[in-house]
Amino acid sequence: MTREELRDKVAIVLVEPQSPGNVGMVCRAMKNMGLMQLRLVNPCALDHPEAHKFAVSARDLLDRAKVYENLADALADCEITVGTTRRHGKYRQEIFSPQEMATIVLGQVTHNRAALVFGREDSGLTTEELTMCRWHATIPTSPDYGSLNLAQSVLIFCYELFKAGEAAPAVVERQLASTNTTEELYRQMESSLLRIGFLNPQNPAHLMRSLRRIFSRAELDDREVAILRGMVSQVDWATTAYEGKKGR
Question: What angle do CA 57, 62, 65 make, to 5 degrees?
Answer without folding.
Answer: 145
